[in-house]
Amino acid sequence: MDGNVGVSLSAMAQPQGSLPHGSHGEAGAPISRIVAEVAARCPGERITLGEMAEAFGDRAFGLLILLLCLPALLPGMASVFGLPMLILGVQMGIGWRTPHLPGFIANRSINRSDLLRLSGASSNWLRRIEQYVRPRPGFFASPLGDRIFGWLTAYVAIMLILPGPGTNVPPAFGNIVMALGLVEHDNRTIAWGIGLTLAGCALATLLLVLICVAGAAALSWLV
Questions:
Q1: CA gyration radius for the chain?
Q2: Which burial class, exposed, middle or buried, applies to 147 when counting CB atoms under 10 A from its CB (0-12, 13-18, 19+)?
Q3: pLDDT tens across 205-220, in order?
Q4: How many CA atoms lie within 13 A of 61 on its CB side?
Q5: C-alpha–C-alpha distance, residues 210 and 9, integer Å
Q6: Which residues contact 185 (CB under 8 A, 6 or more apart)?
Q7: How far apart are CA 43 and CA 202, in angstroms?
Q8: DSSP 17
């Protein structure tokens, strides 16, 4: 999310109208509401990850992971956001309640207009899921559930960092669903997201193993 990301994000979707801060009763989907809330709390043409972390406190983990995962659905963009996601996931996994971003990540910024476009980047399947997201207490919305979320996010981040055709979207999609549930404190959505993430990571891992096996076989044949 540095100054070069704007060009890539601009192709994601047309800008969505922002909603008033705190308007959880509006008809807008959770991603649209979350993005609008970020824009309302962080004034300025560019918004840094550090500003988001400070503005949202214990909600910042889910918010930042959600915003980092959305561009990962685009071809060629996943690896750019893998390292920040890995750091956030490990911090959640070891039980930190708020993110502590190193300077080189905290200073990364995104244009306000590009941030608003993110609300239109979700797929049709994700839009269907958004309709059912609402606060629901439960195990996965607990501190222990947060740790599970964190380590799964760290694994997804590794999948995003490693090169491999078709290995980015399945785990990233599951992680987005998990993050939606985390931000909205929705135990059921987090549980569905965990299932989707595990399935996506299993598929991505299998594809990477097959690629490695095929590569080794081809190399041995050449030698």
A1: 17
A2: middle
A3: 898 888 888 888 888 8
A4: 30
A5: 31
A6: 135, 136, 137, 141
A7: 40
A8: P
